[in-house]
């Protein structure tokens, strides 16, 4: 039975520290249970603050990083190494500092990769990479223990934007053209894929996010507000600061 929880922290710095600690513990537990862990990264400023906090916490050494599979929930379709790629940002903020197994780090293709400047081909390549790592006996996807999502002011998650055709997409990975947040071309896990994760953690800070967060938790639909359609199999965890939680009904709040 899936559980939805909301945890509210004082501000972004405290949130980043607390989410980093929570993430480290969750990865340790996953490895204790399964011998490995699957982590899906997101882009954006809040996630970057969390990544830096993980990097700087000594407890990160309790994770066996060589047995963590790292995936991305979405990517800005730009050349390899572009500073605006989610991959580049995650590598700089965290991944470069960790003893990861490079074969277990799975960035989404870049626009100058072997697929060429073709986001549909890039989405197909990522779909194949996911299928290669699929759980034995299951369909097409690996085990995601934790899937991180930033939340946009408009309620987007990953590169699933409100009202965009991608909100209806049922294939595992989709190309996105005409993104309202630059750059316009992206690749993304779709909502059905996101929703196979054991735990989905939605991160939001600042007053700009309050309306979207409040509406998502009040039961908005996923086409209007994709964040409302992101749910973990075991748990959906909203990790907010006070400003982003301003419109969340008191029944959902657990102040920290
Ligand atoms: O590629 C991206 O831009 C992200 O994956 C996107 O979904 C992001 O997570 C949100 O827009 C929140 O970003 P902020 O934390 O910067 O507000």
TrEMBL record:
GO MF assignments: 6-phosphogluconolactonase activity
GO terms (BP aspect): carbohydrate metabolic process; pentose-phosphate shunt
Keywords, in A-Z order: Hydrolase
Catalyses which reaction(s): 6-phospho-D-glucono-1,5-lactone + H2O = 6-phospho-D-gluconate + H(+)
Region entry Disordered, spans: 101-120
Enzyme Commission number: 3.1.1.31
Domain Glucosamine/galactosamine-6-phosphate isomerase: 11-238
Biological or metabolic pathway of the protein: Carbohydrate degradation; pentose phosphate pathway; D-ribulose 5-phosphate from D-glucose 6-phosphate (oxidative stage): step 2/3
Enzyme class: hydrolase
Function description: Hydrolysis of 6-phosphogluconolactone to 6-phosphogluconate.
Family: Belongs to the glucosamine/galactosamine-6-phosphate isomerase family. 6-phosphogluconolactonase subfamily.
Protein name: 6-phosphogluconolactonase
Record organism: Micromonospora polyrhachis
């Amino acid at each position: 039975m899936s559980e939805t929880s909301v945890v509210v922290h004082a501000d972004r710095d405290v949130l980043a520290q607390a989410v980093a600690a929570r993430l480290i513990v969750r990865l340790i537990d996953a490895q204790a249970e399964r011998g490995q862990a699957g982590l899906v990264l997101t882009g954006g400023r809040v996630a970057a603050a969390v990544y830096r906090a993980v990097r700087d916490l000594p407890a990160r050494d309790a994770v066996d990083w060589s047995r963590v599979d790292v995936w991305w929930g979405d990517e800005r379709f730009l050349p390899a190494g572009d500073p605006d790629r989610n991959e580049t940002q995650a590598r700089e903020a965290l991944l470069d500092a960790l003893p990861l197994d490079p074969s277990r780090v799975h960035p989404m293709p870049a626009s100058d990769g072997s697929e060429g400047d073709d986001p549909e081909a890039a989405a197909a390549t990522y779909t194949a990479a996911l299928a290669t790592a699929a759980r034995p006996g299951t369909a097409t996807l690996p085990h995601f223990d934790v899937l991180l999502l930033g939340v946009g002011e408009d309620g987007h998650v990953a590169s699933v934007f409100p009202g965009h055709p991608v909100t209806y997409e049922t294939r595992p990975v989709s190309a996105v053209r005409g993104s309202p947040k630059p750059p316009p071309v992206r690749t993304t896990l779709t909502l059905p894929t996101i929703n196979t994760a054991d735990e989905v953690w939605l991160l939001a800070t600042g007053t700009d996010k309050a309306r979207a967060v409040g509406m998502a938790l009040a039961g908005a639909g996923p086409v209007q507000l994709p964040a409302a359609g992101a749910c973990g199999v075991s748990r959906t965890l909203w990790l907010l600061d006070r400003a982003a939680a301003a419109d969340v009904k008191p029944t959902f709040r657990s102040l920290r």
